Queue: 4 jobs
Job 1
Amino acid sequence: MRRFSRITGTGSYLPPRRVSNQDLAVELATRGVETSDDWIVERTGIRARHFAAPDVSSSDLGVEAARRALESAGVAAAEIDLIIVATSTPDMVFPSAACILQNKLGVAGCAAFDVQAVCSGFVYALTIADSMIKTGAANKALVIGAEVFSRILDFTDRTTCVLFGDGAGAVVLEGSETPGILASDLHADGKHVGILCVPGTVSGGKVLGDPLLKMDGQAVFKLAVGVLEDAARATLEKAGRTASDIDWLIPHQANIRIMQGTAKKLKLPFDKLVVTVDEHGNTSAASIPLALDTAVRSGKIRRGDTLMLEGVGGGFTWGAVLLDF
Ligand code: ACO
């Protein structure tokens, strides 16, 4: 019998400190940086983001999201045999945030590793977990996106620091006789490294290069809309479905204009878009599972709905996962 994987539980967690555009504008003004709620809302759709306290790490946010996903799936942490954390802001150089999170969950023994594909990290991680479940290498997986992007923002660069936030989202993915995940499609093109990167590294006990986020916003914008359409179409084709089968489109929450541009290209009405970028900002690898859990808990997404998840980000990386929820 063919083996599939399906999402049996979702969870998410936002650090308590909510920073509205007005709050941020006031904070930035003290550094001589000028911005406004109007500019941020008009160009991005973002109204607020959450920032973690300085001593809170990605694994701290991720473990809260994981606990909520386990609870909603009715699965005990000890039953999990695979933990994948998608993050670009891990707690330390090594070990992985996944190993640290595993210990915080109070379990040991199962495979645990991080996936680094920036804002596409969650669709990459979900595809890896799905593949491992299909081959029998795992049966109950926790797939988590967790980020503290506030740590790598340059708060003197208004073109980037207003866009990002911190948070985590998680799903429990279990082996199943019926899908579940229908198809996925992952890509990368390393020639675009320079348009979105954190170029610094650690060497000889020092930070070499600039450890803060750099972005060419317009180049990212153009590339993102095109590849998100391509990935969605390729995934639908692999699954033998069409765009009209999609109940909910959950793109990476970077910018409302990128999300609406993608929906338009797929000829989907905007009311099929799950939008949380207004309240979360761009939380990179956490944005898709955060949006998914928010829509599930609000009653918008129901069991049986067909979902298209789409990620795009630094690398450049992009990809999509189509699933029956
Ligand atoms: N507040 C006020 N003014 C600002 C701000 C700000 N925060 N940021 C830039 N400006 C000014 C600029 O200085 C410029 O002023 P000038 O005309 O006097 O020179 C003006 O606004 C226009 O700047 P642009 O960079 O041309 O603005 P644009 O319309 O391209 O919007 C934005 C910028 C929002 C970043 C857009 O390019 C974008 O959304 N790009 C996509 C990038 C993105 O979402 N990245 C997320 C990470 S990547 C990912 O997750 C896929």
Job 2
Amino acid sequence: MSRSKITRAPGALFEPVRVGDIDLANRIVMSPMTRSRAGDGLAPTAMNAEYYAQRASAGLIITEATQISAQAQGYIDTPGLYTDAQIAGWKAVTDAVHARGGKIVAQIWHTGRISHTSFHNGNPPVAPSPIRANAKVFVAGEGFTDTSVPRALEPSEIAQIVDDFRQTCRNAIDAGFDGVELHGAHGYLLDAFLRDGSNQRTDMYGGSIENRARLMLEVTEACAAEIGGGRLGIRLSPVSPANDSHDSNPQPLFEHVVERINPLGLAFIDIVEGATGGPRDIAPFDYDALRDRFDGAWMVNNGYDRDMAIDVITSCGADLVAFGRPFIANPDLVRRLKENLPLAEADPVTTYGKGAAGYVDYPALDAAE
Ligand code: 8OZ
């Protein structure tokens, strides 16, 4: 039977499930969300720990995107996971989430060309090819700013990036994380290598689908070997135009990627359906063709509400549903969805940037409400 035809009882959204090597209390995932509130040295702070702990009733928390190296940064005040201080900061986060009974994985990224010279001592960011993305990043003192023209990575530099991803997975386990999600979406480095809109290389990392997928697969293999596939997931966004991401023929490209990832035994694939934060039907794409090629848990996201989430878990083949923005103003989102209680609206002004306002001051509903 096609895996996309699996059916489940109503209520399954709120029931426990084992995903790879990780036991979850329910099928609701907190999506990774950049909030740009890391502390000194891009290390997580006690306030970051409080924010994640408040949301620990999610079956799984996926952290905001977190750098694998200094070279990987593209936005102001996004955290890293490559220094001792960053690992210690994350340890306080994972301890706080675990103390509340939650599970948490680190989303790790290299932003690639979605970056700016100000993060690299005035030097260009790195990418598959020297093509500027028509996209913006936020930069100290200037707010949203055009990305810089990148330089193409030398073939000799690529092994270091694979190793940075592998080492960051090890650091994540040392920091107490239950696992890692690789950010393979939204035009960042791994996605930029995949696509012919951003990858015009003529070496073994460019040209054919096999070559363009090579970096993502090398990284996924190295990370699965380091921490075990059962603690690893990957986010993909096959047709999202986020950050000027585009490809002439995404269907066979992503079928190849999922076919090659499947034998690594990953815990989950996290699929952004349609345009990130926008229309779900932006381009035709057969997601079931990907789902049928993968034996792990299938996580869907992008604009799901309560009814859509229940429907996709009970009758449309997904195993997990990720919610992003609703988690900002509703730390107790799982309870509100389960009991069909009203949702609070987040203030968009405080999405990114310093301070507790709009971050740790959204209350949970009182127990009696
Ligand atoms: C919004 C602002 C900054 C970064 C992504 C990590 O698109 C992001 C991001 C989103 O995945």
Job 3
Amino acid sequence: MSVNQLEPGKDPGTPTPQMLDAIVVGAGIGGVYQLYRLLQDGLSVRAFEAADGVGGVWFWNRYPGARVDSHFPHYQFWFSRELWDESDWTETFPAQPEIERYVNHVVDKFDLRRHISFSTRVTSAVFDDATGTWRVTTDAGETLVARFVVFNTGGLSTPKIPPFKGHDSFAGVSCHTSHWPKEGVDLAGKRVAVIGTAATGIQVIQTIASQVAHLTVFQRTPNYAVPMKNPKITESDLTWMRESFDELSKKVRWSRGGFVFEDPPYFRDLPADQRDAHMQAIWDSGNLSIWGNSFADFQSNQQANDYVTQFVRDRMRERIKDPALAAKLIPTDYSFGTRRVPLENGYFEAFSRDNVSLVDLREDPIDSINASGIRTRAGHHELDVIIYATGFDSGVGSINRIDIRGAAGVSLKQLWSEELCTTVGMQVHGFPNLFMTMAPFAPAAAICNVPVCVDQQCDWIADAIGFVRSKGLRSIQPSAQTQQAWMDHHRAVSEPTMIGRNMNSWYRREGPDGSKRELIAYLGGIPAYRRACDDMIAGGFKGFELV
Ligand code: NA7
């Protein structure tokens, strides 16, 4: 099918844009399911993907050691029993190639590939008030018209490289982790720098420390990293997974973070002499339960939070023998769980190697980058490779790269630069029939095991589109009041949490001046969020402008 189909009798030089029901932007975890669901609903749909393959972050993040932090069997699609039954996993925390293969399998199993235009970036989407349609253009020079547009562009897809003085002058190889070349980077025997010590940096550092001649780690903020236990998945694990689908899929939908865990006790209810054993059991599980499931009131009770923080600091100190190193690697100025908790596997041990050194940027900041390396205030580091594990323009970065103009030509980027706002993280007032997943002010923006939360968002979007179509309406968008009510609710439940109090994390959008602003993570929990979304559907989208 050609993109620009010609109307009979028209001048071939002026093609009529193809008219579709919906356009899906992105073919990662969200985009793949969104495409599947809309096709199932009988819509004509095209998906566009900037990469030459599917997977989204699992396509791009090929850096050494890249693996998911969500433990088996949670990080997979939940929409198809058949898919679940035939899925094979080899590790408790699958690595990037395994997840990329899985997404490819899903795309082929459901025959989605032919609906995706690869290596094509959507550059603009402009709403036509007169026809109630979106005119979408791509960097391949195509123009399409669709009634609905869904941006499944991911919340952590636009890399952030700090504007260090002299950045471009480096003569060696430099690379952001999220744009790691498919053919890899030869690190053997090289002098390598890693800037950034959060979830990504930790995975890179622990993986390459033994491969390089010298590794210099540039750390700005230390993180509370928790050991990952990553046993191989056995046949009996897979049998259990398949037999548990019905129960797990029910529970996970209403879980706190997209994981099925036992309900944790409230801190005050657990006798003091049982707390250490409780914590140790959670610690030993080797996954993120210590963050999401240590105590029910962990995010709201300072005492509970202090207790867990101390427990984690003590465990870290047991691992880091050198007190001077421990002082640099163990956070002291913020509480555990108030930023994304990375999992690690040999991270602290990497620093006891002779070929690894740590530069604490709080004491010795980067001054500039030059042809031969990185100059800090205290000296110069000669380098062959610089790896930027410096994170992403979180929440809005990938949507803001597209010139989106809603009703009356209003620019979404401009609107968001004045006030970041969404309704349940999926629509924005003034942008009829435009939807998004993993955008700010939903659990999927930050605090959720992605496939679980994104599945729910894709379903809500498909249901909203189905509602418009079944009622013979032209468009749907939240009213200004509905949006304000959601933003008020978000702030009321999210800001008072422990995470809300920490200003230093990607859960807060960074302004152009580097200052931290709106908290993009919705912290009211998945159940409250899901109920709010379900109520909108059940109530016939009361509070939405239905035209
Ligand atoms: P993150 O979590 O945003 O971490 C970025 C890291 O880069 C972090 O250590 C930052 O230090 C560091 N950074 C950022 N800018 C600078 C500058 N200018 N100088 C020095 N260091 C800097 O990104 P990740 O890729 O690790 O993880 C993102 C998510 O992907 C993760 O949470 C999972 O959900 C998957 P800082 O802490 O800002 O001081």
Job 4
Amino acid sequence: MSDCIFCRIVDGQIPAKKVFEDEDIIAFNDINPARPVHVLVIPKKHITSLATVTPEDAPILGKVLLKANEIATAQGSPDGFRVIINTGRVGQQEVQHLHAHIVGGPDPVGPMLKRI
Ligand code: 5GP
Ligand code: ZN
């Protein structure tokens, strides 16, 4: 989708600091990090949100979660992290391309209001 900012990152039309990539997903640093480690993991395929997924998306959703620990550890959050997937209007999802926020760092992640 050419009007989707994260599809444009997938296509290389918008620069991002990629920290992981394979054939199905990419992970890159959030442009406005809320914590020392703040990575977004997204499917390369355009999926709007958890509100629109179908059973055929199960493998890719699994992959996003399966890679989270490896990405967090490599980025400096080896002792745990949070995964947040804001969804839809009530979830205050701002970018309409499904993404998992991985947030962490050297210290425990405290309570967070909407900021990520
Ligand atoms: P949401 O509120 O949709 O869950 O989060 C969207 C996230 O995408 C925000 O944390 C925001 O900082 C991040 N973001 C928005 N535009 C860009 C961009 O162009 N590049 C990167 N790396 N992150 C972005
Ligand atoms: Zn997209």
